[in-house]
Specification:
The chain is mostly beta strands. It has 11 helices and 37 strands. Strands 3, 4, 5, 6, 7, 8, 9, 10 and 11 form a 9-stranded antiparallel sheet that branches. Strands 18, 19, 20, 23, 24, 25, 26, 27 and 33 form a 9-stranded mixed sheet that branches. The protein has an 8-stranded antiparallel sheet with strand order 1-14-15-16-2-17-29-28. Strand 23 and strand 24 form a beta hairpin.
């Protein structure tokens, strides 16, 4: 099982996207992310949780010198394959003999050179050692093929040395007298030009229905292993001139030299291809063999099928099918338990935990345009929280793999990743059921949460506090789980979201505000509101995805006030506080959902450059989409990022205004993004005709110290501290 070490709950939604960075253990846990105590994820999963796609352009890049070395290092370390060819009984017809049985690779025991120890005795027994054949791989190119294949075309030189063949029947030889057939056969691609042959390994992307519909790889067949005939010419076939048959010393049957062509050669190549196919399939399965996790193995989705852990020296052991001994496919992705209360530093109730698993599987599709592999995944709460009402959620309807080519950026792409709206919405539901959205804030975490900062808007509060500033508490109760809507992810000419990438829709959020009066927390009022917050993903440089949010000022609707009998202010005045109160949780949430930097890919000859994020798969008749897509290209590891951050010496000039806003000057025509008190960065907004922009944020309406940070599109930065 490959586990990517995540350090924040932001990666709950993007774990699989980042799982390409490799695996590893987290030990005692990283930021609340820990190994599953039961070993493997046991919850429900969705086949259409997401996908990873390599486009035809991506295959072209991988086939370049920069990319192919990585693939070769997996298939054939050092560029060499050593294929054991075991003894096998093959049946053919030859020179009028309708049924002729031959033992191919009839080598006998170690150092054997006579029939007495098994060489060319016409039998395959346990004493016959496999003959090792060396295949040197010189070139490799990959190509996607319909419906579920990736072809690896290998340019290789093959040298078998002398393999021994013996007939099963003692009277098989009809030419030159009786006796048994004894031959040596030698295949060397260097005998006749070209000095190599091409083998097409059809690697089948299989969804293993026995083991949780995970991705499994196997070599389904090998092209180019028949002898040349007609229009088929080398190196796309086996040149008969590369194979010689001879009668070994002491053999009386001359049939070998008479049959220096056709069926016998095909038997040899067929056996060699079969052995190569088995070895490569076993190697692929071994690469993706599930390790034992805490002594446990995955559970099969078929009744009566079980797995067992086979110990290994110096390792956790591997999981194999109890009946067949074949490797159980491992999870290529991420799974684990996330303690959200730890990740958010006590902002939510202790024990708010979820378990998740995302990995390659569920669905596959391949064509000459590229290959898509589905991501099968699921999320579940460890235990329902007492701070929310338990609710049943119907199972999502499975979606097909997204058409990432149709919605691709005009510049093209090599790699693309997607997450379905279904799995994002289900994740938010599970997070809500775990209690991770039951947020409580006090002045021990937010220093501005004191009654004095609200005195200007709630003057009647002073009569309860005798004019003193007392601590406040804000409790956000998630009556309903939020949902997510995927949009196209475009901006209008003013830089505002024309169709935001994501819209967080959180209906009937309840906010209770308490004040410490006479040594007890007295509730001042309760506000219920709907929150529709636009969100996006900003690509910075080559490898950073930064979450950005729209303005809270316009995101709150349907506000109602209750339990406000203590205060003299009107409900409308209290309703104006909703964005201010919600913004108090923003810095803590931003710490838990920070920017994501793609991990380096050790051993790979390339790096990933992120291009853009956008909606994929528009739902008919709507402006919404089924999937969030993230597009990327590949570039050589030896090169610098094609779009590095610009470093400007000049800083942006910020100044404060009396209306609790900040003015940024000297922008020219560039756009800016800002954040307040280390909260979320804003979506990009343009300068006005005078090269200026105004920062507005609900937190600035409260007194106390605030820090405003601004980034310009040209790389300049500015910072202003308000007191």
């Amino acid at each position: 099982m490959v586990r990517f070490v995540t350090r924040s709950p932001w990666l709950v939604l993007f774990a699989v996207f980042l799982a390409c960075g490799g695996g590893g253990g987290c030990g005692g846990g990283c930021g609340g992310f820990q190994q599953l105590p039961q070993g493997t994820y046991r919850g429900a999963k969705l086949d259409s949780a997401g996908s990873i796609r390599v486009s035809s352009a991506g295959f072209a890049y991988i086939n370049s010198d920069a990319g192919i070395s990585t693939i070769l290092s997996v298939l054939a370390p050092g560029g060499t394959l050593r294929v054991p060819v075991p003894c096998s009984i093959q049946t053919t017809s030859l020179l009028g003999i309708p049924v002729l049985q031959l033992a191919i690779a009839d080598e006998g025991s170690l150092l054997c050179n006579a029939e007495s120890c098994g060489q060319m005795d016409g039998r395959c027994t346990a004493a016959d050692l496999p003959r090792e054949v060396t295949i040197n791989i010189n070139t490799l190119r990959l190509a996607p093929k319909s419906p579920d294949l990736v072809e690896a075309v290998i340019g290789a030189t093959v040298q078998t040395g002398e393999l021994h063949i013996g007939s099963v029947s003692g009277s098989a030889c009809l030419l030159g007298g009786g006796g048994r057939i004894k031959c040596t056969v030698d295949f060397d691609t260097g005998r006749a030009p070209p000095a190599f042959t091409e083998l097409g390994l059809n690697i089948k992307l299989t969804i293993d229905t026995k083991w949780d519909r995970l991705l499994s790889l196997e070599v389904s067949d090998i092209d180019g292993t028949s002898t040349c005939s007609g229009s088929t010419q080398p190196p796309a076939c086996i040149d008969g001139a590369d194979i010689t048959l001879a009668r070994p010393p002491g053999a009386t049957c001359s049939l070998c030299t008479a049959a220096n062509f056709g069926p016998v050669k095909n038997l040899l190549i067929g056996q060699l291809a079969s052995s190569l196919q088995k070895q490569l399939t076993d190697a692929l399965k071994e690469i993706n063999c599930a390790p034992c996790s805490l002594g446990a193995c995955p559970m099969s989705t078929q009744a009566g099928v079980t797995a067992m852990c086979v110990p290994e020296d110096g390792g956790p052991g591997k999981c194999v099918d109890s009946a067949t001994g074949a490797c159980v496919p491992g999870l290529i992705g991420v799974e684990g338990r996330l303690d959200v209360s730890t990740a958010l530093q006590g902002l939510v109730p202790a024990g708010s935990e979820i378990e998740l698993a995302f990995g390659a599987g569920g669905l596959v599709a391949s064509s000459p345009m590229g290959t898509s592999i589905g991501l099968r995944g699921g999320v579940r709460e460890v235990a329902p929280s007492t701070c929310v009402a338990p609710k049943n959620r119907p199972a999502p309807v499975m979606l097909p793999l997204p058409d990432l080519d149709r919605d691709a950026p005009a510049m093209g792409y090599d790699l693309a990743f997607s997450l379905s709206q279904q799995v994002m919405a289900d994740t938010l539901y599970r997070v809500q059921q775990s209690g991770a959205l039951c947020i409580e804030l006090g002045n021990e975490t937010v220093s501005q949460l004191e009654s004095g900062v609200l005195a200007a808007v709630l003057p009647s509060l002073n009569k309860f506090t005798d004019g003193k500033s007392v601590p406040l508490r804000v409790v956000i109760r998630p009556v309903n789980a939020p949902t997510i809507v995927v949009g196209e992810g475009t901006l209008d000419m003013a830089g505002k979201p024309l169709d935001p990438l994501l819209l967080l829709d959180w209906p009937q959020v309840e906010i209770d505000v308490y004040a410490l009066i006479e040594d007890r927390n007295a509730r001042l009022f309760t506000i219920q509101a709907d929150l529709k917050l636009p969100m996006g993903l900003d690509v910075r440089g080559c490898d950073e995805l930064r979450p950005v949010v729209g303005s809270l000022m316009n995101a709150v609707t349907n506000v109602s006030v209750k339990n406000n009998e203590m205060l003299a202010e009107s409900p409308d005045a209290l309703a104006m506080l909703v964005p201010v109160l919600l913004s108090q949780a923003e810095p803590a949430l931003a710490m838990g959902f920070p920017s994501v930097t793609l991990p380096d890919l050790p051993g790979f000859a390339f790096k990933i450059q992120l291009l853009r994020a956008r909606g994929v798969g528009q739902i008919t008749g709507t402006s919404t989409y089924n999937h969030l897509g993230i597009y990327a290209r590949l570039y050589p590891r030896t090169e610098m990022c094609p779009v590095p951050f610009k470093a400007e010496e000049a800083a942006l000039w910020l100044s404060s205004r009396e209306d609790a806003t900040v003015r940024i000057m000297g922008l020219g025509t560039q756009e800016i993004s800002f954040r307040v008190d280390e909260g979320f960065w804003s979506m990009w907004q343009p300068a006005d005709a005078f090269g200026q922009a105004i920062v507005q944020h609900p937190r600035l309406r409260l007194g106390g110290r605030h820090v405003v940070e601004v980034r310009g599109a040209d790389g300049r930065e500015g910072r202003l501290e308000l007191r």
